[in-house]
């Protein structure tokens, strides 16, 4: 990255102020809240997130007065080709070229803030060339990508805290003891002010509302639009980040507008209409979530439990996963909620987990499981079953599968 960025005249040094976000789960949702709050405060916000669901353009949002928009095809093509020419055939990964293109795009367009999501880990991530962000944020750290980041939570946390910079505030979500110990150690080493969930700031659910508190006071806000108890935590992390930055003066009304207005596709997203919905049982509920590790499965299962308390429906989980994921750890979260699992193949992915292997993991947990060739086939199969109450259907296990579903349904992210 340093070699390529030098050839590009260092666009990463020409960016608006950067908020750099790492972690295992919740990074994208936290960025969605940050962007929505900042835009509600009439600030221009660039955002670089990954992976995309349907189109590469989703990774790049360019800020503008009154709200931003995804980069257009021609401008994105030009940025990628510019980086490719500068690279001149030297060894490079796709993510590195895409990240360099983000820096070029963001350096060319004025904005007030750049929201920059780590791709993998942190210490060696392509985004970690930004030398002096105005804040670093660490969302919940859990087990994932162990083949790259290590086999223990401590080793994974050490990679995540690689984004912490000298004297730059660190805002972190609630963490497991092993992870918070590493974060605290790194913050001390870098003389970085540390704002920890449950210590310097708190977020709670009271009467269905989000109540946030820190040393500056208390805010009583409407519930997030994004569904699930974990979204209160993600929203709290975004609020804590912006309140830790003296350079940003955010009106309280902007915090509430952002919390209730933030959108982030494939995170407990309700599919209410579309081509795929039309193939499902009449009056069923379809929920889509890209969770793909044990912790992601836990928060989705908790959200489903909340839904069950409100309106009881039989639950069917349609799942497809990548081969390097912990299928048993993910599916165990649903063992008490459903016995009906349908394992499907993620199309066009060479390293997708075979449905038979997924099915074996489900059977080992005592679940009733069948394998079908596609999500469409799974939905059609459910129309042939007799339900006293229309089912609640969760499609989950991979962001790649989620993107495929949104494309099939005709509801890609905008």
UniProtKB/TrEMBL annotation:
GO biological process terms, semicolon-separated: folic acid biosynthetic process
GO molecular function, one term: dihydrofolate synthase activity
Enzyme class: ligase
Biochemical pathway: Cofactor biosynthesis; tetrahydrofolylpolyglutamate biosynthesis; Cofactor biosynthesis; tetrahydrofolate biosynthesis; 7,8-dihydrofolate from 2-amino-4-hydroxy-6-hydroxymethyl-7,8-dihydropteridine diphosphate and 4-aminobenzoate: step 2/2
Alphabetical keyword list: ATP-binding, Folate biosynthesis, Ligase, Magnesium, Metal-binding, Nucleotide-binding
Signal peptide: none
Reactions listed under catalytic activity: (6R)-5,10-methylenetetrahydrofolyl-(gamma-L-Glu)(n) + L-glutamate + ATP = (6R)-5,10-methylenetetrahydrofolyl-(gamma-L-Glu)(n+1) + ADP + phosphate + H(+); (6S)-5,6,7,8-tetrahydrofolyl-(gamma-L-Glu)(n) + L-glutamate + ATP = (6S)-5,6,7,8-tetrahydrofolyl-(gamma-L-Glu)(n+1) + ADP + phosphate + H(+); 10-formyltetrahydrofolyl-(gamma-L-Glu)(n) + L-glutamate + ATP = 10-formyltetrahydrofolyl-(gamma-L-Glu)(n+1) + ADP + phosphate + H(+); 7,8-dihydropteroate + L-glutamate + ATP = 7,8-dihydrofolate + ADP + phosphate + H(+)
Keyword Metal-binding: yes
Segments forming domain Mur ligase C-terminal: 284-398
One GO cellular component, as annotated: cytoplasm
Tagged with keyword Protein biosynthesis: no
Enzyme Commission numbers on file: 6.3.2.12, 6.3.2.17
Domain Mur ligase central: 21-241
InterPro entries noted in UniProt: Folylpolyglutamate_synth, Folylpolyglutamate_synth_CS, Mur-like_cat_sf, Mur_ligase_C, Mur_ligase_C_dom_sf, Mur_ligase_cen
Essential cofactor(s): Mg(2+)
Membership in a protein family: Belongs to the folylpolyglutamate synthase family.
Function (record text): Functions in two distinct reactions of the de novo folate biosynthetic pathway. Catalyzes the addition of a glutamate residue to dihydropteroate (7,8-dihydropteroate or H2Pte) to form dihydrofolate (7,8-dihydrofolate monoglutamate or H2Pte-Glu). Also catalyzes successive additions of L-glutamate to tetrahydrofolate or 10-formyltetrahydrofolate or 5,10-methylenetetrahydrofolate, leading to folylpolyglutamate derivatives.
Identification of the protein by name: Dihydrofolate synthase/folylpolyglutamate synthase
Native organism: Bradyrhizobium sediminis
Phylogenetic placement of the source organism: Bacteria, Pseudomonadati, Pseudomonadota, Alphaproteobacteria, Hyphomicrobiales
């Amino acid at each position: 990255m340093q070699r390529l960025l030098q050839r590009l005249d260092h666009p990463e040094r020409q960016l608006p102020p950067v908020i750099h976000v790492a972690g295992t789960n919740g990074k994208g949702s936290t960025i969605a809240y940050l962007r929505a709050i900042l835009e509600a405060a009439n600030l221009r916000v660039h955002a670089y997130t990954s992976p995309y669901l349907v189109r590469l353009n989703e990774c790049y949002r360019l800020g503008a007065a009154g709200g931003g928009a995804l980069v257009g095809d021609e401008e994105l093509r030009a940025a990628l080709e510019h980086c490719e020419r500068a690279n001149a055939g030297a060894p490079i990964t796709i993510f590195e070229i895409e990240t360099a293109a983000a820096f070029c795009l963001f350096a060319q367009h004025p904005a007030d803030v750049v929201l920059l999501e780590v791709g993998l880990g942190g210490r060696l991530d392509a985004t970690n060339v930004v030398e002096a962000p105005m804040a670093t944020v660490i969302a919940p750290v859990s087990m994932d990508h162990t083949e790259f980041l290590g086999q223990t939570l401590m080793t994974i946390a050490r990679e995540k805290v690689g984004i912490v910079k000298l004297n730059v505030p660190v805002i972190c979500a609630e963490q497991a003891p092993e992870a918070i110990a590493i974060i605290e150690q790194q913050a001390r080493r870098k003389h970085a002010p540390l704002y920890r969930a449950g210590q310097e700031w708190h977020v709670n659910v009271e009467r269905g509302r989000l109540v946030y508190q820190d040393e500056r006071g208390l805010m009583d806000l409407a519930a997030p639009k994004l569904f699930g108890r974990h979204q209160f935590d993600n929203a709290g992390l975004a609020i804590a980040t912006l309140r830790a930055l003296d350079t940003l003066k955010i009106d309280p009304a902007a915090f509430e507008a952002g919390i209730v207005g933030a959108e982030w596709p494939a995170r407990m997203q309700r599919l209410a209409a579309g081509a795929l919905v039309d193939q499902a049982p009449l009056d069923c509920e379809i929920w889509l979530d890209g969770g793909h590790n044990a912790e992601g499965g836990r928060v989705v299962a908790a959200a489903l439990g909340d839904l069950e308390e409100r309106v009881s429906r039989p639950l069917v989980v349609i799942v497809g996963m990548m081969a390097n994921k912990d299928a048993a750890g993910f599916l165990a979260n649903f063992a008490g909620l459903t016995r009906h699992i349908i394992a499907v193949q993620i199309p066009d992915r060479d390293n997708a987990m075979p449905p038979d292997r997924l099915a074996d993991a489900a059977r080992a947990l005592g679940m009733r499981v069948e394998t079908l060739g596609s999500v469409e086939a799974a939905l059609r199969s459910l129309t042939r079953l007799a339900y006293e109450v229309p089912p609640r259907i969760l499609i989950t296990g991979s962001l790649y599968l989620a993107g495929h579903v949104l494309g099939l349904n005709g509801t890609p992210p905008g």
